[in-house]
Amino acid sequence: MQTDLEKFWVSISCKTWYDDNGGGFNGGGGYSDGYANDPYSKYSSKSNPMDSSNQSENKAQRVQNEVDDVVKIMQENIDSVMKRGEDLDNVGQKTDRLRDDAQVFQRSAVRVRKKMWWNNMKWKIIIAVCLIIIILVIVLSVVLSKK
Question: How far apart are CA 103 and CA 99, in angstroms?
């Protein structure tokens, strides 16, 4: 599939070749005796030499319009590539920030986990000490009551 630029260059090169070779069908180089032997003279732009300058100006204008269109398309392409580059930079910066935030979160999570583990251990130790005291009180009361 051809891009717009490729189509443009093919159309320019075909038109240029046709025009450079006289535009005729007798092997190129124009018509041997002017416009008289041209069977398509009433349809051809070469039938009226007065119109040739006007048509060459039209042709030049068409070519210029095509070039302007191609330049416009290329500028739009360059703008979209630049925008895409800026978007990629923004995504890269967001990724860096997210990685830094993830590291901070991980450190905070480890700190909180350790703090919660110590807190749970304190409660387990307090409960164990309370149970030992209760067991000692019960054992001492039974031993002292038998004496």
Answer: 6
Separation between Cα atoms, residue 107 and residue 111, nearest integer Å: 6
Question: Are 68 and 4 in contact, with CB atoms under 8 Å apart?
Answer: no
Q: CB-based contacts of 32: which residues, under 8 Å, 6+ apart?
A: 26
- Please give the Cα distance from 79 to 76 (Å, whole number): 5
Whole-model pTM? Answer: 0.41
Give the pLDDT confidence of 18-54 residue by residue, as tens digits. Answer: 555 555 444 444 444 444 555 555 555 555 555 567 7
| Amino acid letter, 7 | K
Q: For the chain, how many residues are written?
A: 147
For the stretch 84-112, pLDDT in tens is 999 999 999 999 999 999 999 999 999 99
Q: How distant, in Å, are the alpha carbons of 1, 36, 118, 140 from that of 66? A: 19, 34, 77, 109
Structure tokens at 139: 């054992």
